[in-house]
Amino acid sequence: MMNWYMIYITVGLFGPTIFQETLISEFFGDITPSTSKIVLNGTLELNCTINAGMNISSLYWETPEGKAPLKNTLIIGNNTLQLRKYVTNVSEEGTYLCRSTSEKQMSRTPRTNVVVEYEAIRNVTNFTCMVDKDKDELQCRWKLGTYNHEEYLSIMASVSFDYGVHFIDCPEKLPQESCTWSQGDGDIYAITIFINLTITNTEFKFTKSFFYDFRNQKILRLSPPTDVTSRVTSSCTCVNLTWSTGERFIVTETKIYLNSKWNATPGVNEIDRFKTAMICGLIPDSAYELDLQQKPTGGIYFSDLTTAKFNTCMTAPTNGPGLSSSGYLSAKCDSPLKYRSVMIYWKKIPEMYQNGAIRNYIVSSDGLKNHTFGARNLSGSVLVPCKGRHNISVTGCNSAGCSPHSSIIVRDNKELNPPDKLIVEQAGGDKMSLTWFGSSFASQSVSKIHVIWCKGEAAVQKCRGEINVLPKDTSLTGNHVLVSKKDINDSFGEIIFGVALLNGENLSSGIRWQETCRYTKDTVMPKPSDIRLLPLPPDDSLAVSWSRVKCDRTSAKNAYVKSYRIQYCRLNNHDHCKGNKAEVSLSADGMTRYTIHDLEDEKKYGIWVAAVSLRKNISYSDMIIGIPKNNDLTVRDISFIAAGSGFLFILAIFGLVCIIRQAIRKLGFQEEFPIQTIQIEDCKQINQENSRYIEPSEAEEYISFIQAEKSDRDVKDTPFSRQLSEDSGHSSISSTLRDSNFPLDDLLMKDQKLLLCVDHKQVVCQSEKVLDSGDELRSSSSDTLGYIPPVKEIMEYDKFFDEHEERMEKYNYRHGYMRNQEEELKCPKNLDYVTNSTTDVKDEHFSVISLTGNRDTEIHS
Known about the structure:
Layout: E1 4-12, E2 15-26, E3 29-32, E4 35-39, E5 43-50, E6 59-63, E7 66-67, E8 73-76, E9 80-86, E10 94-100, E11 111-117, E12 125-132, E13 137-143, E14 153-160, E15 168-169, E16 178-182, E17 192-201, E18 206-215, H1 216-219, E19 220-221, E20 226-232, E21 239-244, E22 252-259, E23 267-272, E24 276-279, E25 287-296, E26 306-311, E27 328-330, E28 339-345, E29 360-365, E30 369-374, E31 379-385, E32 390-398, E33 401-402, E34 406-410, E35 421-426, E36 431-437, H2 441-444, E37 446-457, E38 462-463, E39 468-472, E40 480-484, H3 485-488, E41 495-503, E42 512-513, E43 519-520, E44 529-533, E45 542-547, E46 563-570, E47 582-587, E48 593-596, E49 605-612, E50 618-620, E51 624-626, H4 635-667, E52 701-704, E53 719-724, E54 731-734, H5 736-739, E55 753-763, E56 765-766, E57 769-770, E58 776-778, E59 784-787, E60 793-797, H6 805-811, E61 840-842, E62 846-852
Parallel strand pairs: 4-11, 12-19, 35-43
Antiparallel strand pairs: 1-2, 3-5, 5-9, 6-7, 6-10, 8-9, 10-11, 12-13, 13-16, 14-15, 14-17, 17-18, 20-21, 21-24, 22-23, 22-25, 25-26, 27-28, 28-31, 29-30, 29-32, 32-33, 32-34, 35-36, 36-40, 37-38, 37-39, 37-41, 41-42, 44-45, 45-48, 46-47, 46-49, 49-50, 49-51, 52-53, 53-54, 55-60, 55-62, 56-57, ...
């Protein structure tokens, strides 16, 4: 059998296509069938029949995967080689050749093309239809599945709105996996919809149909809800919602999504049949966003979303500030008033429970006195008595009210004292070593400790944020603990530490913060500097001093100095020690000087000073040499000194007496100045209409000025009378001291000033009653300052230290003053203080005297 073929391969829209035509080339055999189509998991059989005269044993099959194994070939008769194989992959599709091992026959090899498909027609999946009311469309979609040659498929889709009587073809061309019909194509809102889908594989000559029916209400997609309204209840935690479905005859289901900053995923509420809902569990003073969508009851498709927003109202905070039993720092009780300052640390109320912006925090002690602090404060100081335990409570307040109280117990001043000192050292890259001193665990029954830490600066021991408490519930055997980065979940860069001790009652000692210097463990200890011997030590002694090892606050590479150690010994002629060195240790908190006693005078001694750390690292200074002296005086020397001292004392007494007598004569204290006193009319006899005015020439005025003195001295009055001179007619200040040539300025201290402003026409009145002579004048503390003199005119004057309230409280100065209740009297603006002098300034209604004190010490009359 002789055949002539030529193979044409063209590439078209649907991939390569093979055409075979008879040509003038001769193959050595024939393959049947000439073309083959097979689906996966089918058996492929190809027969290669050779021409007469060829050796069948020289033949073999070549597949797209290579030379076919012998197990898949079979010799039939004398001239046929059969290929039989099980097809499991579409990659087995392609050209199959019947080849000969003879070189003469290589160019005359017969071949055939094999088409492999998953299935001729696969089952359609995910067939869905939806009637979209917003678009007035019927949309159907489906999945054909995977095909190796989808181009061989022919698809026809049709719909019936009259129970299958008439079908309307898909208006779209080549509908592969979807088709859309509009209201113009038919009644898409029909109660029942039938869909027919017919698929044909033209290569495999195979057709398959799929039929579907749908209830319209089930596949109907409604328009979104409208007219959404929200009303927050008075509790601020619930909201009433109403909306419109837009459907009169369709019962709907509604899904409500609730979004706020408090939930990562929206909360979902499903409402069946109703068009109202109440949603509770909301957070006050919060913004919420609602998304609503609806569908027919029992339907598949929800509508698009409708969005609405609302805000809840504000209420008092739900939770109080966070407090730890160790969240306080108690000062020592050094005040004579027996009160101590206690610093309270709290955590801010979590924002979710603030229910409105926090305006302030209120701290109260034993429920008696409130102290208010700003919203940014996370600590505050209060005063409590030294004795007894005290309940400290903290509450946070917003505009609507205050939170529940959070409380802690502050210890009695004499129980469970905190450590005196806390040293924090960097111990490697990821650990901190905390060591504390000054507390006896056994005597104070300490059961556990709290490590307190916060972000801040050790140099100022001030937290910039909240404190955090790390419990260390261990059986304490020492005064040391290690803290890792994992414990605090942070780096050590800006962290300051504290410790607090707790007893079995969970009563805390309060915090002891770390020292302001930052230390690193096992750092080389520097030598003390400025080692020197102090002059004039006691007999047979040497006094040595040194400078402290300073902290570099810009670095954490400091070595902690626990103590200073002094070594000394007697030296030989070669400045070497004769015998062993003696040594003494001094606390690093003490003085940087020490006196070595009981040495031999006139002998050389060598002295060394070293700083000692917690790890006993020691670096001694260079040696300094000193020679003790003994300067005892003889009995004869002492006798001469005593006699000379007595003679000088007698001379000093004699000179002092002479100076005092001369001063008295110079100052003229014994001179007398006669003064004529002018009588004035009694205030009660003045006509009522003119009761506020009298003539200046008729006035006799007294000035009682404020006396400021310490509480342990008696209050004294020094009356001054203002009198008219016979010569000039002007008034002047007089007193028994001025009459004795003692300047009025010398009644006042140098830092005291007195302004006397005298109104000649203003009558002294108080509560519409004229003060009578003999009425008591009292200060604000009800101490009697003196009595009203028989004067009916007012003298207005400034008070000592009225701008120094703090200083007055410190020295307990007492003061009092008279003031007219009907009209406040003011001095003319042009009248100023006059320094170191007594000056009378004459005005139509006023006389002003301004004084500044000269005395260095108080004078008692």
